[in-house]
Amino acid sequence: MILSKFVDELPIPPVLKPYRKHPYHTYYKVHMTEFKQSLHSELNDTTVWGYEGRYPGPTIEVESGEKVFVKWINNLPAKHLLPVDYTVHGAHLDVPEVRTVVHVHGASVEPESDGYPEAWFTKGFKKVGPYYTKKVYRYDNCMRSCTLWYHDHTLGITRLNIYAGLAGFYLVRDQQERLLNLPCGSYEIPLMIQDKSFNKDGSLYYPRQPEKPVPELKTSIVPEFIGDTILVNGKVWPYLKVEPRKYRFRLLNASNTRFYRLKLDSGQLLYQIGTDGGLMEYPIGVKEIMLAPAERADVIIDFTNLEGKNIIMTNDAPASFPTGDPADKNTGTVMQFRVTLPLSNIDTSVIPSYMGPLPKIKEKSASKIRYLTLNDNMDKYGREFMLLDNKQWDAPITENPKLGSTEIWYLINLTTDTHPIHVHLIDFQILDRRAFDVERFKKERVIHYTGPSIPPEPQERGLKDTVRANPNQVTRIIMKFGPYTGLYVWHCHILEHEDHEMMRPFVVIR
Ligand SMILES: [Cu+2]
């Protein structure tokens, strides 16, 4: 079933209103529920899960330094919307089927409020996971202005909870950003890009078995999920009417597995001004933007003098990445911009020539180097799965950085996939990527480089919390751990990998 393109208008999630606002803190309540929503006008309404009755959830906007408290409330039904595999870690039959815990991706928060995968809770907080500590999360928002997102992070069912709709934007603002005179108000729009597949009746399709089924299981996790339909802000192939002027878009890949290489079919440039962790030093004009799951790009698109034009945002990344099938005319199409609105005011916003300093972390400031492999392995059902440092989720903690210390992590990818590796709590900088001899490494456990050190791409030269670790390469990242101590996680953000052991705890120690 192929749906028509550009028949529905792009929805823009509303900004969430606080439950209470005090001079020194703000308090929100966010309910998770099941409901029906129209994802395309040719499709029956789809049962989804969402925050505050909508998918994607409302956008949470905070000021840098604002103390924010959020009570995340699970009002979901007891039965999951999607097929649960009870054999993956944390999802066994000894726990309730529907569990939630919320993580603000990219935020620096105390460990009790980070949404630890085993800190889950059920409806009414009736049952809670072993690491659950409290109902109301606290966010100090000590970051600079940046594009973050909140989403579910429950052990063993993250892929299903996010696919069901549990995701939304979380924007941090600050004075530095305001002084830049970027496009704002109705000219600043978040774009959450996802792929899904649908059954004929309009319900969400998520596979019950991999291509090579596991006969002894009714439901088995799949190694990847590749949808045949692209949605932006919860609408299939939407259009957006724009004025002939500059717009700022917060691009987010919130897909389970799919990567996007985004372009405009007009051939015009996208002006990237920010990465995962906020504004870059200088804007860069780029023809295409690569986004792995969970990566963000803050871009300005200039529609000036394009009155009457229709511009399509396209995607040409293969799925899975990088060796999977090429995008087709459906998955190669993301959304359409229609320059049909009259200019309501003179556009005085700018693409700044300089956004502000972003000091590089020096390699010699690192006190610890960690060599961490990305492996594939086989589980007891004969399913291929991916591991970090060849260890499963339950293995003893091995990454234990000291508070305030700087570390360099060598991500040594021995698999054939690109894995978007996400580290909680901190932002990092990418040092370089370098080709190496994988077979020799497997035999001798020594890195033999086969190519020169490749600096990060221009679009990655900013603060990052998710990095593409490509096959046959060592990807090096550098970061300073703090300001909190305690238990966090790092993981692959391909959700099917994350749920199937490609996640590890780490602890920041005093
Ligand atoms: Cu992965």
Structural shape: globular
The CATH superfamily of the largest domain turns out to be: Cupredoxins -  blue copper proteins
CATH architecture of the largest domain: Sandwich
Ends distance = 56 Å
Helical coverage, percent range: under 10%
Q: Which radius of gyration do the C-alpha atoms yield?
A: 22 Å
Pick out its properties.
mainly beta, eight-stranded mixed beta sheet, Immunoglobulin-like, Cu-oxidase-like_N, binds copper (II) ion, globular, 510 residues, 3 domains, 5% helix, Cu-oxidase_fam, five-stranded mixed beta sheet, Multicopper oxidase, 37% strand, Cu-oxidase_C
Please, could you describe this protein's structure?
By secondary structure, this protein is mainly beta. It contains four helices and 31 strands. The protein has helices at 158-164, 175-178, 438-444, 495-499, and strands at 20-21, 25-37, 46-51, 57-63, 67-74, 102-105, 136-139, 146-152, 167-173, 188-198, 204-205, 229-232, 235-236, 239-241, 246-253, 260-264, 270-275, 278-286, 289-291, 296-302, 310-315, 333-338, 368-378, 384-388, 406-413, 419-423, 429-435, 466-469, 473-480, 486-492, 503-508. Strands 10, 11, 12, 13, 15, 17, 18 and 20 form an eight-stranded mixed β-sheet that branches. Strands 1, 2, 3, 5 and 7 form a five-stranded mixed β-sheet that branches. The longest helix has 7 residues, at 158-164. It is globular and about 60 Å long. The protein binds copper (II) ion (CU). The site of copper (II) ion (CU) has 7 residues, from loops.
